[in-house]
Amino acid sequence: MAEAAPLLRAASVCKTYQTPDHIGRLVLDHVDFILREGEIVAVLGKSGSGKSTFLRILAGLIPASDGSVDYRGVPVTGPAHGVAMVFQSFALFPWLTVLGNVELGLEAQGIGAAERRKRAVEAIDVIGLDGFENAYPKELSGGMRQRVGFARALVVNPDILLLDEPFSALDVLTAETLRNDLLDLWNESRIPTKGILLVSHNIEEAVEMADRILIFGSDPGRINAEIPVSMPHPRAWESAQFRQIVDQVYTLLTTVPGGGRRGAKAEPIGLGHRLPDASVQQLSGLVDTLTEAPFHGHADLPHLADELTLSDDELFPLLEALQLLGFAHVSGGDIDLTAAGRHYADADMLSRKTIFADAVLKHIPLAAHIRRVLDERPGHRAPAARFLRELEDHLSEEEAERVLDTLINWGRHAEIFAYDYDDEVLSLENF
Amino acid sequence: MEQRWGLPLVAWPSRLRPNFWDLVALPLVLGLLALIAWGGMAMGAHYQIGETLPISLDPWRLPEYALRTVLRMGAALIASLVFSLAYAALAAKSRTAEKILIPVLDILQSVPILGFLSITVTGFIALFPGRLLGVECAAIFAIFTSQAWNMTFSLYQSLRTVPGELTEAARMYHLSSWQRFWRLEVPHGIPALVWNMMMSVSGGWFFVVASEAITVSGQSILLPGIGSYIATAIAERNLGAIGYAVLVMLVVIILYDQLLFRPLLAWSQKFKGDPTGDEDNVRPWFLIVMQRAQFFDLVKSAGLALNRSIDLALSFLASQWSGRNPRKREAMPAVSRFEHIFDAGLLMATLAALAWMAHFIHETVPLGEIGWTFVLGAITAIRVLVLIAAASLIWVPIGVWIGLRPRIADRVQPIVQFLAAFPANLFFPAAVVLILTFHLNPQIWLSPLMILGTQWYILFNVIGGAVSLPAELRLAAGNLGVRRWLWWRRVILPAIFPAYVTGAVTAAGGSWNASIVSEVVQWGDTKLTATGLGAYIADWTAKGDAAHITLGIGVLCLYVLAFNRLLWRRLYNLAAERLRLD
Predict the structure, then answer these.
(1) For chain B, what percent of residues have pLDDT higher than 70?
(2) Are B175 and A104 a contacting pair at CB < 8 A?
(3) Among A81, A87, A95, beta carbon nearest to B271
(4) Which of A37, B350, B523, B541 is found 20 to 30 A from A174 (Cα to Cα)?
(5) pLDDT tens across B467-525, in order?
């Protein structure tokens, strides 16, 4: 199916968000992309890499700041007819029945009642929901709700399906069933859809479904790599080829910013680095797991994820945090504890605090910065808002808050500083 | 089995066939329509100022009067609904409009409702010369002001918090803005809107009763209704007639509860996303009638058809319009320029209004009196605070006791709701009689009247707070041996605090309002007065002096606003930040 006609094309798409101080924050940087007829493309990337924004620009839900998107050669200026979307949270209307939800898109197109009913019932049959036509979404399980989401998308006979992490709110078994059902419909051409774009954070899911995988890098978001997957369906998760592609994707996704590959020292990160969402408890538990059998300080990432029963988007922040703190390094889809990491693992609870504190102050510029400011101030107190403003130069408001919360969690544990929740003040009290 | 919202009629013609439930529903509806028509005609009757409408104390006239009162309430409710839809939509959709509309709403909320009546009645009478309709409108407007603001606020907030992915889904599937408003945004707001609407109506009975006896430039007009019946009974010192009025009011509120409150509340649950678990699964009988009777399906289908045709017309117009102006959104610099001009204009208008008001009051009222009104306000403020404290001391322990016993709480909650709805002003005469017989000091003993009707909000919310205390927390406290005073301080008081604040805010707001009718109370020719801002406003309203009324109400507003900002909002934030149980 090489060089089939392009369905959807994005040409050097950029997206800038306005920050309060009117300096634009770039979230997408010149993204070029083509979705061809007959292919499934998956987009993988860390949270905050702008992949969701990119999907919404393709959908015509938000305008690009620069560059262009066209669908079958026509510029996209709003949601186009022929493009349907399935949402992570299902986005069903709670006050409409299954039938009402599925019919809504047809109703908006002004299609007559009889025709509407016929097509909706068909779509509900195809997606395996028959019998539930008159149920309200709240009566259904997560998997059934997402089936309604798919039926609602398919009933408008879309050319293109945009899937925004559609399986991530479902449990593993339900997700797999739904994924297989969708792949069957696609492979047997029982749906009119010509192309699917899937945003995901589950590597195996992407490798199972996609013909091509795009790896998004963060800050600003851009396409870092593209991996073709040319295995026939159905794809066995345990086959060597499948595992090899999974490893390759892991490698691409876990490379630290600045490229700390092959044990080379990672380049220093900036003040506004998007600190990963990892709690001290989790980090300490992960180091323990890595030290013990069967890993003994070295692990294959997919294996580790399985062992911990963590999903990729839960594991990646922990891996990044360990790397940032110099406790581990990741390369080629493997993770190794460093000397510092082993030292931390061998220490008792109190010494761990000290080692952690040293690592945070040494490797995380934001922590060092906060400590310096508190040291210099006469009362050794500073409002959290002060640091939040500094972070907002680099991150969105929401992300800035999340990053500061993460650091406060680390700093409190390491006893680098204290934090008063009621006054929102950082201080050196009690030390 | 459930209601089928949004399904077209054509699909199942068999649904048109009447069934057993129609036998119940049809007479009810037709009867209601006839009553509305009759009431409307009565409202349009001829009337000249100075004429007195005879109010008979014959108890057999009471049903008729009650009906007139209920019609007023209904008219106000419909007006409030229309107002909220338009106002909230405008505020939520336009950033420029929002800037002015929301603060204005915030102020309007603080204006004492009976103050609106004093100020607007002259204007309404001028609007319909020679007809009773003007006076009716003034009364309806006063009730409207007791309902519209919080309904609007709740709808505005709902419109602003529609889940992002739902909006995106609506856009992806090409719903027009009109469709999005009616199919997504309004339904999303319905649970909160219905709850606020029902609360408003409960609070509204008090104002219906108070607003029927209107004084215009020294002459009192009695609109036929329960309020006027009571006013006449008071003038004639007829305690028996007041008893009848209380009885009829009781029936009216029970009917309102059964025919409107419970069905609507149960129906609104369907618009909630996830079942919260504490829903009542018992469907009220009247809702069942409504849902089973085909007649209502017909009405609904007609409504949907109307909505659909408006949508078609609008999208036709929109396509015409966009054909001429292809996509000119995101013109950021121009927008911000316009905003600056708008802001400047707003500022000027505000300053002009301030200057005009200062001038108007200064012309007629000596400076010393302005200071005096502030002193009066302080006296009323002290009354409100002391009464809230006293009511809290009584009702918090009782509420906690009830709330921790779920089976009792289930029975008591509807009764308390009912008590909150019952217009407390019906009991004022009894209080006067008591004060007169026992020669009590009116300065002190009139005060409890202010909180007579609003104290129930404290009890109601405290019970709610105690009910929702997780069982595990109670068990943990018991396990740790936390008892008596420590238990109150560390467990139950923090747990019910957010709910208590909500109740206290409502009670305080209601008490400020009630001060206008409760600081001056009459029984025949005997008039009891308690010094305070409420009495000041009541006196000048009776004399019909616009400048003094404006001054009094302005000062009252300032006090209410100050209390909201300095006390209640802080407690609210504290409760929301630290003491939430989730």
Answers:
(1) 80
(2) yes
(3) A95
(4) A37
(5) 888 888 888 888 888 888 888 888 888 888 888 988 898 888 888 888 888 888 888 78
Residues B558 and B426 in one domain: yes
Nearest to B473 by CA among B501, B458, B493, B499: B493
Q: Does B268 lie in the same domain as B397?
A: no
Among B222, B255, B276, residue at a domain's last position: B276
Q: Is residue A287 a contact partner of residue A327, using CB atoms and an 8 Å limit?
A: yes
The C-alpha atoms of residue A415 and residue B299 are separated, in whole angstroms, by 67
Q: In terms of C-beta distances under 8 Å and separation of at least 24 residues, what long-range contacts does A393-397 make, across chains too?
A: A393/A19, A393/A21, A393/A23, A393/A272, A394/A25, A394/A270, A394/A271, A394/A272, A394/A273, A395/A25, A395/A272, A395/A274, A396/A17, A396/A25, A397/A20
Q: Record the pTM.
A: 0.80
In a domain, B327, yes or no: no
Query: Could you report the per-residue pLDDT of B54-103, keeping only the tens digit for each?
Result: 777 888 888 888 888 888 888 899 999 999 999 999 988 888 888 788 88
Beta-carbon pairs below 8 A across chains A and B:
86
**Strands A195-200 and A160-164: what pairing?**
parallel
CB within 8 Å: A94 and B271: yes
Q: To the nearest whole number, what is the mean pLDDT of chain B? A: 79
Residue type, B535: A
Given the structure tokens 């090409």, which residue do they identify? B174
In this prediction, does ipTM exceed 0.85? no
Rounded Cα distance, A28 and A15, in Å: 5
Residues of A in contact with B577 (CB under 8 A): 422
Q: Report the pLDDT averaged over residues A345-361.
A: 91
Q: Measured between beta carbons, which residues in chain B are less than 8 angstroms from residue A154?
A: none
Exposed, middle or buried: residue B30 (CB in 10 Å: 0-12, 13-18, 19+)?
A: exposed
Q: Which amino acid is at B125?
A: I
Q: How many CB atoms lie within 10 A of CB B18?
A: 13
d(CA B423, CA B266): 25
**Pairing, β A298-300 against β A418-420:** unpaired
User: What interhelical angle do B20-43 and B62-93 show, nearest 10?
Assistant: 90
Q: What is the CATH number of the domain that holds B56?
A: 1.10.3720.10
Task: Kindly state whether residue B405 falls inside one of the protein's structural domains.
Answer: yes
Q: For residue A159, which residues of chain B lie inside 8 Å, CB to CB?
A: none
Q: What is the pLDDT of residues A279-288, one digit of tens each?
A: 999 999 999 9
CA–CA gap between residue A97 and residue A103 (Å, rounded): 10
User: Which comes out higher in pLDDT, residue B281 or B522?
Assistant: B522
